[in-house]
Each structure stands twice: as C-alpha cells, then as structure tokens.
Amino acid sequence: MAHVMQFAIALGILAIQFFISKRGPLFVGAVLPIMYIVFFIYAYVTDFFTKRSTGSLLGAVIGGTVLLLAAWIYGRESLAKKRKKELIKMKATDL
C-alpha cells in the first residue's frame, strides 16, 4: 500500500509541474526541479536516507529531474500550441 501512495504522490507532483509549466513566465516551471535537486542534496548531506546507496540516490535524482524537466518542456510546448491557435483564431476573425 505504501508504494501505491508513493506512486500517487509522484503522479500528483508531475501533474502540478505540468500545470505550473503552462502558466506564467518560463522560470516558474523551473521551481520544482530545482527544489527536487536541492532536497536530495540536503538529504544526502544530512544522511536522511540511511539505508540507500549513493548510486540509487543518484539514479533517483537524475530520473526525477528528467521527469520534471520533461513535464516542464511538454507544458511549455502545450502553451505555445494554445497561443498559436488563439492567434490564428484572432487573425481569422479580423478578416
């Protein structure tokens, strides 16, 4: 049951990242990946993960960061497509 909750939390964070990436300025979507990396650095320095090896932590950092950055890129591309559609619609009504 614990793994199901962890997976649900991870999916929720990815959904939040996608939603944030579709809004506002470009740098807003960079907040979660930076916080993720900072958290793992802090956790590693303070020995928060006592039963984990350095390799598994490094894999989690790289994998999580890649997923968050992918959600950020996908959100920005989605926003660009949406803006392009709106611009085409505006030009069509102008004619």
Describe this structure in words.
The chain is mainly α. It has one domain. It is built from 3 helices and no strands. α1 (2-21) runs parallel beside α3 (54-94) and α2 (31-45) packs antiparallel against α3. The longest helix is centred in the C-terminal third of the chain and has 41 residues, at 54-94. The protein is elongated and about 65 Å long. The termini are far apart.
Give the N-terminus to C-terminus distance in angstroms.
58 Å
Structural class: mainly alpha
- The helix content, as a percent range, equals over 70%
Molecular shape: elongated
Helix-strand pattern? HHH
pLDDT below 50 for ≥5 consecutive residues: which ranges? none
Number of strands: 0
Reported for the largest beta sheet, the result is:
none
User: How big a fraction of the residues is strand?
Assistant: under 5%
Number of DSSP helical runs: 3
**CA-based gyration radius:** 18 Å
Keywords: Membrane, Transmembrane, Transmembrane helix
Quick recap:
The chain crosses the membrane at residues 26-45, 57-75. The protein is mainly α and 95 residues long.
Topology:
Blueprint: H1 2-21, H2 31-45, H3 54-94
Helix pairs in contact: 1-3, 2-3
Keywords: Membrane, Transmembrane, Transmembrane helix
Transmembrane segments: 26-45, 57-75
What characteristics describe this protein?
95 residues; elongated; 0% strand
